[in-house]
Amino acid sequence: xxxxxxxxxxxxxxxxxxxxxxxxxxxxxxxxxxxxxxxxxxxxxxxxxxxxxxxxxxxxxxxxxxxxxxxxxxxxxxxxxxxxxxxxxxxxxxxxxxxxxxxxxxxxxxxxxxxxxxxxxxxxxxxxxxxxxxxxxxxxxxxxxxxxxxx
Length: 151
Prior knowledge:
By secondary structure, this protein is α+β, with helices and mostly antiparallel strands. The chain contains three helices and four strands.
């Protein structure tokens, strides 16, 4: 039964295609995301960069009750951080990213760059909110979590 669960977890969480892109292709994804930001709006004047990242891992779990389980996991992401500037010189930065378990599930670098640019430009002309005292309500989620309970 544990092997069956391990196979299901690995199948859902691990996709080897995250390592399928060459280093040049990964750099290209990041460059395409950044270029898309610049191409989307002329008010994008600078950038804090863009990135492509991927990782895989193998997790092994064990406890004193005899449970031993393992699964593989993977993820990849593409992001862009453009800086918009208005005619008065005011600058705003923003970002956007896409994260997925497999490369084929990521948004395109062009889409990521476009959304990041839209968010940065939308911030132009914004201003800080005046300080004020406002009521707040903290609600604990502790009642939903029951650590240490044995079934």
